[in-house]
Structures are given as C-alpha cells and as structure tokens.
Design goal:
7-stranded antiparallel β-sheet, Glutamine Phosphoribosylpyrophosphate, subunit 1, domain 1, disordered N terminus, Rossmann fold, 6-stranded antiparallel β-sheet, alpha+beta, binds iron/sulfur cluster
C-alpha cells in the first residue's frame, strides 16, 4: 500500500533497570509506522540522546545503547523527521516526541517568529516543543494543556523529564496511544503490539485530552481536558496499525476480518461470487481476504510471494522508484494460471499499484481478477497527518466530481469505471455503513474525513 506518507510511532518506558534495550525493542515493534528516522532519549541526571536516519535494528549499535544510560526514556520512529528533540528549559532538560500533524503550523510559526523565536527547520515537533516550553514556563502539564488551545490537528506525544514521562493525546484521540506494564516496567506506546511482544500487560488507552505522568509512583492522570468528541482515525484499523494490535478496545485483526466479511456479504446479496480463490495483496490485504474467505467459503490461497527484503513501497521518493520497489516486493505464484481470483486490499489511492497487481495476475494466466477493497473510496486528502496527497491524485476523484457521501448508484458507477481503469473483471468497495459497522465503533467516535469530507468539529 501507498497512502501513508507522514506517519510515526512513539514509545516510552519507566523501568527498574536500564531502559535503552527496552526502548530499542519497543521501537522495533513500531517500525511499520515509519522507517526513515529513529531516535532514543533516556534520562540519567541529564538526557542522553541519539537519533539516526534509517531503521532501529540496523542503525543503533550495542555501544550506543550502552551510552543511553538511565531507567526511563522515550523513542520515536518516523517517515518525516528526527525525533525525539532535546531541549534545555526552565524545567531542566526535556525531550519531546510525537505522532500526528500540526495543520496550522504556518500560522503558529509566523506568530512565534514575529515574537523573536527561532527554529531549526520549523518542523511540527519544534512547534509543539516550543509551545510546551513557552506557555508551560517550567510546568510541563500547563505546557501540554496549551497544545489543545493552539494546535489544530492531531498529536499523541511523550515528554521525557527528570520527573518521568508525560504522555498525552489530543482532544479527539486521532492517533492511538496506549499504556502497559509489568511488575518492573510501565510503558506508553503508539500501538499495543509493543507491550504484547515485550511480555507486558495492556493497562488501558490514554484518553483523548488526558495528560498522564509515568514514574516510580505509577501512572497518574494529572489533567483530563474536555474532549468535545472522539475522532479516532478509521484508517488505523483498515491499514496503518499492525494486525496484532488493539486500538481503543478494538482488535485490528477482528476489524479487518469484519471488513472482508462485509465485502463477501455484499457479493452474496448481489447475486454471489463464482471464484476459485480469494487472496490478499500482502501484507495489507491479509485480514480482509481471510474475512472474505470465511463468509464466502471460497478457498483462501496466496497468489503473491512477499519479499521480506524489499522496502515498503511508499518510502520510495519517486513514482518510478515506488513501482520498481513494488515489483521487487511481490512476485506472482504461477498457481494462479486458469484461476478466477478475488483479490483483497485495504484501499485504493492512485490505483497504480493495484493496477499493476491485476496486470501481473492476468499476465501469469489468471482467468478473472475481482478486486475487493476494504475501505470506501478515498475522496479527500487526510487533514490529520496521514497523507499529503492532493485530492486530484486520488483515483476516485478523477471520476466523481461531487462532494458528500456517495449514493449506492454513484458508488456502483464508480466501481465500474475503476474496474475498467484497472483492467479488473470487477471492483467493489465497502459502503460507508458497512465500513463503520465493521470497525465496531460508534460512527461519531471515528474520523472518516478522507471518505466523507466531514472534518470532526473544532479540530480544524
Ligand atoms: S482523514 Fe482519514 S486517514 Fe486522516 S485521520 Fe481521518 S480517517 Fe484517518
């Protein structure tokens, strides 16, 4: 898949033993959220701090981890910039890392620069840090609270100080943030899989608008700001999060299976699907294809072999590089010859990659390829840090010019056009109602803006 261009993961831990190895491990379990940069900060009378261009497992050395002394610290993986950022403040040294997007960054930068503030590059993390430092005047909670007034957009963050680790989520809870621990450690993470795989228990999600402090006293809620509504990114369950995570109480795997099942149910309701196999586009279509198989009873069979040594395609800078990498990433299994295939994936952005997959299958002799997409058509660029794509690049937007939720008639018209464009025998998306029902979450607790254009109120 391809949609995500700006994303990241945060991890922090307070431990009874040196914490650098645990942070390294936690970040490794969040690596799918960003592969361009990684960084770790630990506290041990002062902040030790190392960032790298590249992945955690290949860039951090044993020697560096030994230099990152201390029992508590935070880390970050990113597609966009180096974090955490370290600062010397009235509250002593602090380090800040966040996941999200500051939409009003230009206005905030202009305002701060007019007041004499300087910036390294004007990254969102600099803006967030400077608000915490400037407004907080040494009080980290006051500084984090101020973000809810000043920042338009999304943030889940961790702030490392001599007091411990402060963690917070914006008022809407766009990006996930979860707490976990065991008898010796307390942790905060963008995704639960880090806790699960590090033998910690999940404690709970950080609530939208909550500010917690994690230290030797445990996990304390220092402030709970009023949250006008929840707006969890629906895309987390469909694609972004790892399938073994639990986000805001919903298993990602269950949500993906449900999305696949509802696609199969739609085929059943509309006359049935005659096919030999249902297959995923690895890895993003796996949970969806399994759900489709369960409901349709059509055999589940891989049609692509995943090359684990190729990079994820969206990290490549040019379209040509992305396509070459996508080709390296998946090779067709010759078994598809003569088969009618239902091919499942999470979403269609530009359509280039799914079009290439359909072509590859047909070239290998597949008799029919029916594309089934877990998300409704993407109609608007994400305003909250998941993509910088313009609306014009979205495939569905090339055909549908009207705003608002698509009627069934419009959806089916779009599906016929997309099938023709991709060279597929048919294409179907989940309807918005089926999509929301599959996520097991009330509609008004979700952000669905990239599908319906409705921005959760006050968030912008
Ligand atoms: S617009 Fe889409 S991708 Fe962006 S936060 Fe909302 S649901 Fe997620």
């Amino acid at each position: 898949m391809k949609f995500i261009e700006e994303n990241c993961g945060v991890f922090g831990i307070y431990s009874t033993r040196p914490c650098a190895d645990d942070i390294y491990q936690g970040l490794d379990f969040l690596q799918h959220r960003g592969q361009e940069y990684c960084g770790i900060s630990t506290f041990d009378t002062e902040i030790n701090h190392i960032t790298h261009h590249g992945r955690v497992a290949t860039r951090f050395t044993g020697e560096e981890l030994r230099r990152l002394t201390g029992m508590w610290g935070i880390g970050h993986v990113s597609l966009r910039d180096r974090q955490p950022m370290k600062w010397l403040t009235r509250a002593g040294e602090i380090a800040v890392a966040f996941s999200g997007n500051v939409i009003n960054s230009h206005a905030l930068l202009e305002d701060m620069m007019n007041r004499g503030k300087s910036f390294y590059k004007g990254y969102d993390i600099e803006i967030i840090s400077k608000i915490i430092i400037e407004v907080g005047e040494g009080d980290i909670v006051r500084g984090i609270s101020a973000l809810s007034e000043k920042i338009q957009g999304s943030y889940s963050l961790a702030v490392l100080t001599g007091d411990g680790i402060y963690a917070s989520r914006d008022l809407y809870g766009f990006r996930p943030l979860i707490l976990g621990g065991d008898s010796e450690r307390l942790a905060v993470s963008s995704e639960s899989r880090a806790m699960q795989n590090m033998d910690m228990e999940i404690i709970r999600d950080v609530a939208p608008g909550e500010i917690v402090l994690i230290n030797r006293e445990g996990i304390q809620t220092l402030e709970q700001l009023d949250s006008p509504r929840r707006a969890h990114c629906a895309f987390e369950w469909a694609y972004t999060a790892s399938i073994d995570s639990i986000i805001d109480g919903v298993y990602v795997q269950e949500a993906r299976n449900n999305l696949g099942e509802s696609l199969a149910q739609r085929d059943i309701d509309e006359g049935g699907m005659v096919a030999d196999i249902v297959a995923p586009v690895p890895m993003s279509g796996m949970g969806h294809a399994l759900g489709y198989h369960r409901r349709s009873k059509i055999s589940y069979q891989d049609v692509f072999l995943y090359n684990r040594y190729a990079d994820r395609s969206y990290t490549q800078i040019t379209q040509v590089a992305r396509e070459k990498m996508a080709k390296r990433k998946l090779s067709v299994l010759p078994y598809v010859k003569g088969k009618k295939v239902v091919l499942c994936d999470d979403s269609i952005v530009r359509g280039t990659q799914i079009m290439n997959k359909v072509k590859d299958l047909k070239k290998a002799g597949a008799k029919e390829v029916h594309v089934r997409i877990a998300c409704p058509p993407l109609m608007y660029p994400c305003a909250f840090g998941i993509s910088t794509r313009s609306g014009g690049e979205l495939l569905a937007r090339k055909h549908v010019k009207t705003d608002g939720i698509l009627s069934m008639e419009q959806l089916m018209d779009l599906e016929s056009w997309v099938a023709l464009t991709l060279g597929a025998d048919s294409v179907k998306f989940n309807t918005m109602d089926a999509f929301v029902a599959s996520l097991l979450m009330p509609r008004d607790s979700l952000c669905l803006q990239c599908f319906d254009g409705i921005i959760p109120s006050k968030a912008l």
